[in-house]
Amino acid sequence: MAQLVPVSRERHAGRYWRRFSDLFFVAKASMAPLVARELPIAALNFPSAFAKEKDRYTLVGLFSLFPGQNLYVSPEGKWLADYLPAYFRSHPFYLLNRKDSSEMALCVDEDSGLVVEDKGEPFFGPTGELSKPVKDTFEMLKQAEQNRQGTQLAVAALDEAGLIIPWDIKAVSGDQEKTTKGLYRVDEDKLEKLDDETFIKLRKLHALPLAYAQLLSMGHIRKFARLAKLHEKVASPDIEKLFQDDDIFKF
After folding, report:
1. Paired strand residues for 165
2. Strands 56-62 and 93-97
């Protein structure tokens, strides 16, 4: 379980951290949050969808239809796509809200096994400032958070326009069939019939590219069956077979 601790001179000066060398730390993450800025390239690699948290929808990348499974992490801990979500790339660093401030704090996961006492990259430089790699990661996380706020506004606008609907996916294996619930997608038919006023409003909020990219990404669901077979065989992916047609998933 992650132990996120704010990075501070008192706790981390003189200590070091290491970059992750495998993706086993997300091997059980069936989805991860995405921001609009990364969606165009993410949509070319894996499905995206909307997940509902309390009373609002959030944009997520989808890596499996079953909780506790990430089909895009190979048995060797490698990522089986050309794009790795920003939420994973910053590991072991994350942003958390400060209890006594509206600002966000840079935190590090001290249970990651990547915070060490020597033979790594320093948290702080010789004059007491954050080291350049840590500072760069902090800036990346802050930019991602700013984009997340804009993404949430765009998603809320799609919801307000009635464009987010349930995405029930039927997984078929032999004579057994399972329907996955709790995922949502853009209503393509309603998107095409938007009135001018709503269309312009969504365009101004940059919600239209998000909607089209989400729809485009849905076809990657067909990869899940092949990726599952690769995991069963504990083998490296056969790229040619990965992109052959397979009707195991219906949506």
Report:
1. 185
2. unpaired
Q: What is the mean pLDDT of each run of 10 residues along the chain (251 residues)?
A: 88 95 96 95 97 93 92 94 94 88 89 92 94 94 93 97 93 64 95 96 96 96 88 55 37 28
Q: How deeply is 36 buried, as exposed, middle or buried, from its count of CB atoms within 10 A (0-12, 13-18, 19+)?
A: buried
The secondary structure of the chain, three-state, reads: CCCEEECCHHHHCCCEECCCCCCHHHCCCCEEECCHHHHHHHCCCCCEEEEEECCEEEEEEECCCCCCCCCCECCCCCECCCCCCHHHHCCCEEEEECCCCCCEEEEEECCCCCEECCCCEECECCCCCECHHHHHHHHHHHHHHHHHHHHHHHHHHHHHCCCEEECCEEEEECCEEEEECCEEEECHHHHHCCCHHHHHHHHHCCHHHHHHHHHHHHHHHHHHHHHHHHHHHCCCCCHHHHCCCCCCEEC
Selection from 152, 121, 153 nearest residue 137 by Cα: 121
| Spatial distance between the Cα atoms of 223 and 244, rounded to a whole number of angstroms | 9
Beta-carbon contacts of residue 153 (< 8 Å; ≥ 6 apart):
205
Give every strand in the sheet of 16-17, ordered side by side. 115-116, 16-17, 121-122
> CB-based burial of residue 240 (10 Å sphere; 0-12 exposed, 13-18 middle, 19+ buried)?
exposed
Instruction: Compute the distance between CA of residue 225 and CA of residue 122 in angstroms, rounded to an integer.
Output: 42
Tokens representing 59?
């944009």
Sequence ranges of the domains in the chain: 4-244
Asked if residues 105 and 96 have their Cβ atoms less than 8 Å apart, the reply is yes
